[in-house]
Amino acid sequence: MPPGEEILVHARDLTKRFSGFTAVDRVNFDVRTGEAFGFLGPNGAGKTSTMKMIACSSPVTDGDLSVIGMDPRTQAAQIKARLGVVPQTDNLDAELTVLENLLMYARYFDIPMSVARPRAADLLAFMQLSERAKDQVEPLSGGMKRRLTIARALINEPELLILDEPTTGLDPQARHLLWERLYRLKQRGATLIITTHYMDEAEQLCDRLVVMDKAKIVAEGSPRELIERYSTREVLELRVPEAVRAGLMERLDGLAERIEELPDRYLLYAADGEQALEQVHAREIPTESALVRRATLEDVFLRLTGRSLVE
Amino acid sequence: MTAIARRAAAPPPASTGIVASLLRSRRLVQRNLLVYKRGWMVIFSGFFEPLFYLLGIGYGLGTLVGGVELADGRTVSYAAFVAPALLATASMNGAIAESIFNVFFKLNFSRTYDAILATPLGIREIAIGEMLWSLFRGTLYVFAFVLVMIGMGLVISPMLFFVIPVSILIGAAFSAAGLATTAYLRTVQDFDLPMGVVVMPMFLFSGTFFPISVYPQVIQLFMELTPLFHAVGLLRGLAVGIFGLHELWDLAYMVVFASIALWIALNRLEQRLIK
Amino acid sequence: MAAIAVPNRRTSSAIAGAARVLQRNLLVYRRTWRGSVFGSFLTPLLYLTAMGIGLGSLIASGGSTVLGGVDYLHFLGPGILASSCMQTASFESTYPIMGKISWRRNYEAILATPLQVHHLLIGELSWIAFRMLSMSSAFLFVLTVFGIPRSPLALLAIPAAMLTGLAFAAPIIAFAATRHNDSGFAALFRFVVNPLFLFSGTFFPVSQLPDAIEWVAAATPLYHGVALVRGAVLDTMPATWPLHLAYLLVFLGVTAVIAERLLRRRLVK
To answer: I want to staple A64 with a disulfide (CB 3.0 to 4.6 A). Which of A5, A12, A25, A36 is the partner?
Structure first.
């Protein structure tokens, strides 16, 4: 289902200040129905604060925010009735079983048991947790807890699902299972808002994203657009012997559109990476390793902020 | 520009009145019932605490004490004197254990409330819900304790039956006070101060085990300021069949104390949970 | 090819290993001791004023013979000393131990070093002994302010109170080692620790109880602890003191061995 025309979340000059510092500084964005919208940025960029304002769990300090056409300041309960929230740290009810977590959560939304039961069973099946329905929450693996938290967020059939760092801390297998489930949700027409500091996650899941750094939005677009706008198609990663580093930037000059010097390697941004590598060899620059790869959002972030995203 | 999303199909605006909050807060009670479905022993065993005190202090120590003279000149057995006070302190301790320790844990470690706050339920519903739960448990204990008092022949006056609603009021007051305190506490060590400086001295000195008339006037005046003193006075009055101006003042004190504590609890929890 | 050099290091002796575990607890205590010191003085002060003096005023002079010829304040003081040690030692052996076993997994981390299970147990018992030492010293000071001790023999109340505490710590650590969540602890306090506090001779002589209950009370370590502490403080040490002492020592020894077994079963798989 293609993204709709309706705007589900609308933010203008949205600001969050805590005593002494500004976590979110006059940001503007619109999230449309049916799209997966990402907030990409390092820890402390203001992603979670933005999410919490959308989820009505943190008051807006300044600016305009409308969620599903309502004002979080005055209609928090009505908004929350139609949202699903997956927080950064799982906050499952450790005193209840897997199934009870879903059923009890449904009761918080005043969903009748006759509706909640089949829905909970469906969600457990969808998240591959049916066998654990009667188990306590504590012994579940990190990936299972995450899937249960997402299942719980879906119990009220939300119009908008908010996921804060959905796969942080999970092993690769668990991440891929989660991505696949989220992708299927998207196929069914769910609107997702996702924060992440993983490039691959943003590229996998997001139709559109904003890059946040130091409380501000520094770029906006689809992953492809952002890469085209802020990077070349390919990147040549060079590692050289320590002795060669002095004066190397001059020796590399002209081989690429842009060159980044990192503590452990050099990034040469060029439309054709192989060609750039040939020229490096032609200039008789000794290398320890060389890798040509497609540009990613990591490169976009490096370009926009001068820093890498995940240290 | 595309239209801002429709308002269609929005549920009717959630009423924000206290009655609506009360109704919605029953979900918290349901949650706790679900949890204790497996841990009912914990609830059941809570009843033995005051019973042991009644046996140990009332009878064991009672053999040394003999009788105690009441305000109206009658003399009653020490067990009859101490039983209603034990009921008052049990109501206080139960309410405080539930509202301080359990709520603190849910607030800080298990993050249960964070998850609930993402639903249409708000802080007010959580606070009221936890209080209702605490009262529900407390009421069970009060009933059981009163039955034991009847069984042991400690019933002196038919006014005893008013002990039940009054104990519930006392539980509500201390439960609100506990919630209000919890909202100020940051670490487990922070408990030492309110427990050591407020709760334990009240337990020992508020006329629970002996009439405060054994103390100098100044200390008596100070003790009369504490809520437990009034709770004990009121319950003891009802249990032995005295309800006069004194007891009326005790009742008024408890109502005012409960209201103020509730007001602080609601406001302060809101500040604590909303960041 | 050169062999990997094996440093010539002895495996830790029981004392050195246990000292490390104790040291760790003291390190944590450095940040939290203020609250507990405050409580160590406040608890006896409050109990003696309220129950000793306040309640004591209701106890007719005739009660004095039952109490062994002393007034209620003097009777109660040493009893509360012994039972406070029981309560603190019991608490220290429940939630903190459970936390280190399963919530924070400290023991798992410690056992990955050369330390072994018996180091953990002796270390924890030493820690509890240290807490008992500081608590009972403070308590004895407060008793002295109230003019309760009769002779320098009262100083023996400190080791007696420590022994009482340890006689509860060892079996409760054993119990904690078998628990997978904390729900059993509430029952332990409700059905064992608190009733003992009320019925083991702290507030009134056990002789006031029906014979059957008296026998049950006499089987518990608190009964013997109270007898020794009260005997030391009031200089009325009963002729049966070697029996009380032997009972506590044997009880501690046997339960400590059981605790070591159960901890090992839980931690070493």
So the answer is: A12
CB C81 within 8 Å of CB C136: yes
Q: Where are the domains of chain A?
A: 7-227, 232-294
The answer to whether residue B201 is domain-embedded is: yes
Q: For residue B196, which residues of chain C lie inside 8 Å, CB to CB?
A: 38-39, 42-43
Residue C3 CA neighbour count, 13 Å, CB half:
3
Mutate to test the interface with B, among C38, C55, C223 (most CBs of B within 10 A): C55
Residue B126: domain span: 29-273
DSSP string, B40-106: HHHHHHHTHHHHHHIIIIIIIIHHHH-EEE-TTS-EEEHHHHHHHHHHHHHHHHHHHIIIIIIHHHH
Q: How far apart are the C-alpha atoms of C68 and B82, rounded to whole Å?
A: 25
Query: Looking at the domain assignment, is residue B104 inside a domain?
Result: yes
| Residue ranges of domains in chain C | 73-267
| CATH 3.40.50.300 fits domain A7-227 | yes
Q: What's the rounded Cα separation, in Å, for the pair B104 and B98? A: 9
Maximum C-alpha span of chain A? 74
**Chain A: which residues have CB within 8 Å of chain B?**
5-8, 10, 18, 32-33, 52, 55, 57-59, 66, 68-70, 75-78, 80-83, 85, 87, 89, 91-96, 100, 104-105, 107-110, 152-153, 156
Name which of A181, A176, A177, A184 is nearest A200 in CA terms. A176
Nearest to A150 by CA among B118, B149, C126, B214: B118
pLDDT tens per residue across span C19-70: 888 888 888 888 778 777 878 888 889 889 888 888 888 886 555 677 877 8
B9, part of any domain: no
H or E segment and range at residue A301: helix A297-305
Q: What is the pLDDT of residues B174-213, one digit of tens each?
A: 999 998 888 888 777 777 778 878 888 888 888 888 888 8
Query: Which of C38, C57, C198 is nearest residue B214 as measured by Cβ atoms?
Result: C57
CATH for the stretch A232-294? 3.30.70.980
User: Has residue B19 been placed in a domain?
Assistant: no
